[in-house]
Amino acid sequence: MILFFVVFTVAFLAYANGANDNFKGVASLYGSRTCSYKTALTWATVATAAGSIAALFLASALLKNFSGKGLVPDSLTISPVFMLAVACGAGTTVLLATRLGFPISTTHGLIGALVGAGMMAGTNLVNFGVLGKTFVMPLLLSPLLAVVTGGVLYLVLKGLRTASGIRAETCVCVGEVWVPVESGGSLAVAQTLTTVSTGDALECERRYHGSLFGIQAKQAVDALHFLSAGAVSFARGLNDPPKIAALLLVFGTLKTPWNLLIVAVAMALGGLINSRRVAHTMSHKLTGMNPGQGFSANLSTALLVTSASLHGLPVSTTHVSVGALLGMGTVTGQAKWRTVLPVLASWIITLPVAAALAEGAYFLFQRIPS
């Protein structure tokens, strides 16, 4: 029975992770109007699933780190009650943030829950040295590195675009406005007036004029943008499922492939059903962007997250993705700091909230008769 509850709770955490995280890799596609919400979400789901499959072979270090070994005593890492409390604390925190539209870090939630449940089990059971070295430092440094990488990479790509003779152009919007001039009874007479107006990147699509290796610049940029968004989603699939599946290692009867399959399916469902609020925040509330700028932010995110996954570093895909967008937005002057600040504040409270919820869950589960 306890096996069922732990698997269910871990699947709940994976569902919350998918709802909060799945769209982050493709937010620039939707935010730059390169494609629709549905198309972006479908692409994110497919690429994340591919990353989850690759995690079977490439992310064993993350499975070990997030099983809690070294952070808390081994006696806790093999305790179903402890893992149940961790999954409940992290999952509830992430799902609450999703309902509020805040893109937070599941990694942060897991770390907070591991610490909270560990402290409830015994005040001296948490190894804070391991916490700082293995978990906190990568999480603090990754968003700062992403801001720098996102800004620098955008400037490099912009320089290459300029050197290639490709220039950005803002389109002219032409439309028809119907103006009623006479009305009598049920009959209305109207005439059409053709109007011409210009707008910035938020109202008008910004296009690239020129060619790259014989391919029209816009087509090339859109293709690269899609590929980079897929790379971010793939990297997230490589990085996040092992962290969650590690909670199931307490049961030797469940082998790693089945652990990752349960997590991957639940993540996909969460993303498909419950992504829209976080999608709106990531796509429209952090920074304005055109396809080329979105591509540079995605490329920065994919490089950093993939590298961290291969080295077993528990960075947050959320922090890296938001950091890369802000780095690009800062350089272009389009960052929306008034709406960014609440997002950053949500990151600060994630860890203590998850810790408190996991503490409460551990307290309750310990008192349930076995």
Please describe what this structure looks like.
By secondary structure, the chain is mainly alpha-helical. 69% of the residues lie in helices and 10% in strands. It has a two-stranded antiparallel ribbon with strand order 1-4.
Q: How many domains make up the 3D coordinates? A: 2
Number of strands: 6
Query: What is the helix fraction of residues, given as a range?
Result: 55-70%
* H/E series: HHHHHHHHEEEEEEHHHHHH
Shape: elongated
Please give the count of helices.
14
Uncertain segments: 176-195, 197-204
Strand content bin: 5-15%
Mean pLDDT: 79
First-to-last CA distance: 9 Å
Largest sheet: 2 strands, antiparallel
Please list the strands of the largest sheet in the order they lie side by side: 1-4
Class by alpha and beta content? mainly alpha
- Rg (C-alpha, Å): 23 Å
Summary of the model, kept short:
With about 375 residues, the chain is mostly helical. About 70% of the residues lie in helices and about 10% in strands.
Attribute tags:
69% helix, elongated, two-stranded antiparallel sheet, 370 residues, 14 helices, mainly alpha, 2 domains, 6 strands
